[in-house]
Amino acid sequence: MVSRNKQAGFTLIEMMVVVVVIALLGAMIAPTLFKKVQQAERTRIAQDIRVIEGALKFYRLDNYRYPRQSQGLEALMNNPGDADNWNGPYLEKAPVDPWGTAYQYSNPSQHEKEVDIYTLGADGQQGGEGSDQDWGNWNIK
What we know:
By secondary structure, the protein is mainly alpha-helical. It is built from 1 helix and 3 strands.
């Protein structure tokens, strides 16, 4: 009888081929995936800003003006004290952007709107591109 000693398993070359194939697939899919993530961020921001704008309009209908800059969006959840016709809360809680930061409010507007509602993006600083871009009620669709 002849005994053959066979080892089962993959060779190093076979493992390297599998790793290269997975890396190539990842390189092809990643740009599409990141584009979808940015698109989802923009969609969520647009929806949040529309909700805040709606609450601000109800506030204005009741109080004949928008909250002051110093009162901010907090006036939509809690009576700021000088709003005699406050009929809120207009929002249960202040929405946060996809990066966990509260939306900004500016009254008067700097962008030819009645008021500005915006986020400074992932970096929290003005300007930027991609996820770092500033989004507000003046540039959402």
